[in-house]
Amino acid sequence: MGLKTLTKTQNYWVLGWNLEKGVKISSRRRRQSHFEDYSAKKEDIIYCCDVNGQALEHEQNPAEWRLFIDSSKRSLKAVLLHIGHVYPSIPVACSTNTMET
Length: 101
Fold this sequence. Notes:
Blueprint: H1 8-16, E1 39-42, E2 45-48, H2 51-55, E3 65-71, E4 76-82, E5 90-95
Antiparallel strand pairs: 1-2, 2-5, 3-4, 4-5
């Protein structure tokens, strides 16, 4: 019997049967689901295809934002940062399978 065929309560029992008393188990959250409409995937890179739609709360002035890129041998991340730190950062691209060339 696989975990997918069990009820939610049964899944919690199977996952936590060997834990100490008092340990709590919670289900996975889907906080990213709000941003999935604004993202696209091409090969190994996921990127934001609608920055204005993602910001939602305000109009974007490109002069107020800067692009921050963090990369290593294995990963690449790109984030828009507000210059005055008034708005939160907006992730615009990420990849965990990049190779240095």
